[in-house]
Amino acid sequence: MNRKVLAAITTVGCLASMQAMADPNQQTPAQNRQEVRQENQQGRQGGQQAQWQNPDHALASCVAIGNQEEIAIAKFGEEKTKNNDVKDFAKMLQKDHQAFLQKLQRFAPEASREGYLNESGQKTSSTQPNTSTQVRVQPAGGQVNVAVGGVQQTAGTQGAQQLDFMALHRELAENCLQQSKEMLNKKDAAKFDECFIGMQIGKHAEMKNKLTVFQRHASGELKQIFSEGLQTTENHLKKAEDIMKKLSETNSSNSKSSS
Fold first, then answer.
1. Residues 210, 63: contact at Cβ < 8 Å?
2. In the CATH scheme, what is the code of domain 37-119+162-254?
3. Which residues lie closer than 8 Å to 19 by C-beta, 6 or more apart?
């Protein structure tokens, strides 16, 4: 080999060795790019976690979605019923639940927006930051994966995504609303009223339990709003039970008369 070429190769090798000895922590450009991506991801997750781990926002959003569903089914009931008591009750539900949404708007502006349940198309899973809290998943092998914003698929699965629990709750409400309308549409006039009021008894009993538990975990101002909502819910529940009793008595009398 040419002596000049050999000397040049030796010199380059020595310089590289000296540089590595001078900076043992030096990394390759690929390693640097990987670390930058990891730091950026951790920064986004940390900021998103701080934003969405606000308990008041999560609690108010869940309650607001329930109110949105209640307003929608009450409008449907008002349009379909021919019973004046049921129609007046449906109007009252719309008015009171809309007023409750206005109180929740400060804590959950998106879920309190008018027409929220009609804006379909949102995915419940996403690789983007979302609006839920941190959940740990114990995969096979003992390694714990942490997903900020939802439950992340375990290591080894392809296309791991995060589950947006607020979007999931919204999708559930939309599905329940659709199923309720389909069920009610199959009923004749008398059975429609009984079924609709029966749904209201069930929904308001559910909301009563939800508000009772949620107010234990809310801040002072939201706790007071939940307390007021709980009182209204109890009034609605009592009214629905009274209407159901009246409907049952009327239907019973009509059955005896026809026989």
1. yes
2. 1.20.1260.10
3. 26
